[in-house]
Specification:
The structure is a single chain. Helix 5 packs antiparallel against helix 6 (111-136). This protein is 75% helix and 0% strand. By secondary structure, it is an all-alpha fold. It has 6 helices and no strands. The chain starts with a helix and ends with a helix. The longest helix is centred in the last third of the chain and has 26 residues, at 111-136.
Length: 139
């Protein structure tokens, strides 16, 4: 467990910007800066999580593709309405978790880490749903 305690603490701390971006418009009204920050932070965290799947030299070709498949479309998200981009990001967090759970390393992870990954993905997904809703109905 000790080797995962920092991961667990940092994982939960990483939720604060997501929660802050959901709470900000509820307390102070919606604004485009908040929506942009949420989107960019989501992209950064998704890229980080997908990058953790990358195990150069230790994986099959199909697992290497899984590590990058969710982030390859990211540059094209700027051409989509923000709601669609956020929906792609929300689903991508689940894909990364599914890919991680399918990896052989998943079984060696501590149960607390596995639980944390599910909780974080769930909360991030719900934050995306709220943010999509707030962008559709800003007032």
């Amino acid at each position: 467990m000790e080797k995962f305690i920092n991961h667990i603490q940092l994982g939960y701390l990483g939720l604060l910007p997501f929660l802050g971006c959901v709470g900000w418009p509820l307390m102070f009204g919606s604004n485009s800066v908040n929506l942009e920050f949420f989107t960019f932070y989501s992209i950064a965290i998704l890229a980080f999580m997908a990058g953790n799947l990358w195990r150069a030299g230790e994986q099959s070709y199909s697992n290497a593709i899984k590590a990058v498949i969710v982030v390859i479309p990211v540059p094209f998200l700027s051409f989509l309405p923000v709601e669609w981009a956020l929906a792609w990001l929300a689903v991508s967090f689940w894909l990364v978790l599914i890919f991680e759970k399918a990896s052989p390393q998943w079984q060696s992870y501590h149960k607390d880490y596995q639980k944390m990954r599910f909780v974080l993905t769930s909360v991030v997904f719900v934050c995306h749903i709220f943010t999509i809703g707030m962008s559709i109905y800003p007032n």
